[in-house]
Write a sequence for this structure.
């Protein structure tokens, strides 16, 4: 009898584990060729292959008639105990196995037509926590593995990337970054295909009286730094409180000279979260004559309206070298730097507001990276300049 003459349906618990490959499989096949099948293939009472997929594959290639035995106990725990003991799977591979087990009942596949008609439906489902415990991984690892599987089903990543993790050729962390990047690119494409006029709104108003029609996801702005403008920072904090979505962020670029004063004015109004370092490499040093300092960076104060629920972020971003663009405003920032800030700390499809838009660099960066933009300035000339720049974006 050859394997082809009696094909076996593979039990889903067995199918959750990756097949052997390369040298491991070659060693198994050579051993069977030399000594015969030492360990029989294990079947369920209804004839599903429970253990021995690799041995059965080798027998098929060698023309060996495989011996079989029947196991009548609970199949999932049996399969896991065998494979955990004899397979050298890393944490990522075990997580990928656990995500499949979490879709089963203790008796087998909870979605198959056979299971729907069988007594197995009376058995409890394997929870994510139980699957994680069985495979000695954390529930968060199982959830990440599930997210990878769903991303492959949605076409965000190739199905091969799932197999790469299962075979130990890639990590969950690396593929999750690929998913995030693919999701962001898809959203950027969705936003940027819209007419540019539909992606921004401009208004002329001082910060103290500025009111928006809807809440925004983030405020990214660069108010003036001289001492006489310090009162606008309290106005900005009040504006952020009434304009940000719950959990939304305010990123305000400031000079170092009056940093303690600015914090003292803003923190009673909106909670301080962190300080980012905005680097300006190349020949962009600002000479602070009153302090005898050449500065190559700016603080960006990060405030959050309510409780921050976003992901992890690095606290350094920078403009391109020598990208000190003052063509559109004498206090203008580089588009490269604003793009870096937006891409790191906001998401495509977000609505970004700059209530001190000046020459429009934040708006240009927002539209270029697939965000929507609301800009305001009390200077009508700045609004005209910004509108011209934004209309020129393809």
């Amino acid at each position: 009898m050859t394997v082809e003459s009696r094909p076996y349906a593979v039990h889903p618990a067995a199918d959750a584990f990756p097949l052997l490959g390369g040298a491991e499989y070659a060693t198994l096949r050579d051993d069977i060729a030399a000594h015969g099948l030492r360990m029989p293939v294990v079947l369920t009472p209804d004839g599903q292959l429970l253990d021995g997929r690799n041995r059965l594959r080798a027998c098929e290639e060698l023309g060996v008639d495989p011996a079989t035995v029947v196991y009548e106990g609970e199949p999932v725990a049996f399969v896991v105990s065998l494979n955990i003991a004899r397979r050298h799977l890393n944490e990522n591979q075990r997580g990928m196995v656990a995500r499949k087990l979490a879709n089963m009942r203790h008796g087998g596949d909870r979605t198959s037509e056979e299971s729907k008609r069988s007594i197995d439906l009376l058995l409890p489902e394997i929870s994510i926590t139980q699957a994680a415990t069985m495979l000695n991984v954390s529930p968060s690892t199982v959830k990440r593995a599930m997210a990878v599987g769903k991303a492959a089903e949605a076409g965000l990543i190739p199905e091969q990337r799932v197999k790469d993790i299962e075979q130990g050729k890639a990590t969950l962390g690396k593929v999750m970054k690929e998913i995030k990047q693919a999701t962001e690119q898809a959203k950027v494409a969705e936003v940027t295909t819209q007419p540019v006029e539909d992606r921004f709104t401009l208004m002329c108003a001082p910060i103290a009286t500025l009111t928006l029609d809807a809440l925004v996801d983030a405020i990214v702005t660069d108010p003036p730094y001289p001492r006489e403008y310090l009162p606008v920072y309290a106005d900005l904090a009040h504006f952020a409180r009434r304009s940000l979505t719950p959990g939304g962020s305010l990123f305000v670029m400031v000079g170092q000279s009056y940093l303690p004063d600015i914090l003292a004015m803003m923190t009673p109004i909106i909670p301080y979260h962190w300080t980012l370092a905005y680097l300006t490499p190349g020949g962009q040093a600002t000479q602070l004559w009153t302090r005898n300092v050449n500065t190559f960076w700016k603080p960006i104060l990060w405030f959050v309206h309510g409780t921050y629920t976003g992901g992890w972020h690095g606290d350094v971003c920078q403009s391109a070298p020598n990208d000190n663009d003052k063509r559109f405003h004498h206090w203008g920032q580089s588009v490269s730097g604003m793009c870096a800030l937006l891409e790191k700390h906001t998401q495509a499809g977000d609505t970004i507001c700059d209530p001190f838009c000046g020459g429009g660099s934040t708006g240009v960066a927002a539209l270029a990276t697939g965000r929507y933009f609301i800009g305001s300035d009390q200077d009508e000339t700045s609004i005209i300049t910004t509108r011209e720049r934004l209309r020129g974006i393809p």
